[in-house]
TrEMBL record:
This is Rapamycin-insensitive companion of mTOR N-terminal domain-containing protein. Belongs to the RICTOR family. InterPro entries: ARM-like, ARM-type_fold, Pianissimo_fam, Pianissimo_N. Residues 1-287 form the Rapamycin-insensitive companion of mTOR N-terminal domain. SUPFAM superfamilies: ARM repeat. It comes from Xenotaenia resolanae.
């Protein structure tokens, strides 16, 4: 029906598909993925019939239900595709629809399903963090996602960065991993030894792809040696500069300083390495007009220079 003429798609069938997509997992319905896939196809061809019956919320609920990266990305990209065009953007509610993917991070009492047993809450929360992380990274890999999550005012990016200032270690840990992935940086191992963490992300460290059976010399050279094609700009740098500028304008550096100066040594080490990487990246790819304030971290300098706190904390 969608292929022949999606505009004639029966609303009764759409209602049934959305019902299965919304509650199918709780009912252990084996049709749930097929139903959600058809809703996505229909949303691209006839967004009006899907939006008016709450189908976009079903898609976004399925995003938080899915821990498979390819399916998760396909679902969130459907909504991002609608946001990308003026004629279909009207169907996506501003500040409501896309922000749903942030809920596992921003709502400390988040429950995806009201009937989740108390004993399964921790495991359920971890899986929601993973799904949300995949969706956030996918959103930041598209222009429509970046523009919607970084818009001026009460934006999604400000909600995420604000979480770094709240002493919830579980959320901070997951959020740092999201930031590492957004900026395409390797995540350090969990340790209380700073040098060990630093060595674990050293580009020159031995990697699995450098073995004789895999990439061997070529893979090692691609990582360590500078690229020889310097005659044109690297568009990846343009993209990273754009995202980095948006995050810094929303207070990311001061948010990381809050984690650096926290009592959790493992998180502090990860945040310190990320702060160093982002300062280096900003110094390398941001224009001078945007980088004059980057090395002024008043909170960090004040704590390092203050005699009102212990020497160990100052160090």
């Amino acid at each position: 029906i969608i292929t022949v003429n999606a505009m004639l798609f029966p609303t009764s069938v759409a209602n049934s598909l959305i019902a299965v997509g919304t509650d199918g997992l709780q009912e252990r319905d084996r049709m749930v993925r097929a139903a959600v896939a058809i809703i996505c196809e229909l949303a691209l061809k006839n967004p009006e019939v899907v939006a008016k019956r709450g189908g976009l919320s079903t898609i976004l609920k399925s995003v938080i239900d899915c821990q498979l990266s390819r399916i998760n990305e396909a679902l969130i990209t459907t909504v991002l595709h609608l946001l990308n065009h003026p004629c279909t953007r009207q169907y996506v509610r501003v500040d409501v629809e896309l922000e749903q993917i942030l809920a596992p991070f921003t709502d400390f009492h988040y429950r995806h399903n009201a009937d989740t047993a108390e004993g399964q809450l921790k495991e359920d929360r971890e899986s929601r963090f993973l799904s949300s992380r995949m969706a956030i990274v996918a959103a930041f890999r598209s222009w429509s996602g970046i523009i919607n999550l970084c818009k001026v005012g009460n934006s999604g990016i400000q909600s995420l960065i604000g979480l770094l200032c709240i002493p919830n270690m579980e959320v901070r840990k997951c959020l740092l991993e999201v930031l590492y992935e957004i900026f395409r940086l390797p995540v350090p191992i969990v340790t209380e030894d700073f040098m060990e963490a630093l060595q674990s992300v050293d580009p020159a460290r031995f990697q699995d792809t450098w073995r004789l059976s895999d990439g061997f010399v070529a893979a090692e050279a691609k990582v360590i040696l500078p690229h020889r094609a310097r005659s044109r700009a690297d568009l990846m740098d343009n993209y990273l500069a754009f995202v980095l500028s948006a995050f810094i304008s929303s207070g990311l550096l001061e948010g990381l300083v809050e984690v650096v100066t926290s009592n959790d040594d493992q998180l502090a080490i990860r945040a310190t390495i990320l702060l160093g990487e982002l300062l280096h990246m900003a110094n390398t790819i941001l224009p001078h007009s945007h980088s004059h304030h980057l090395h002024c971290l008043p909170t960090l300098i004040n704590m390092a220079a203050s005699f009102d706190i212990s020497q160990e904390k100052r160090l």
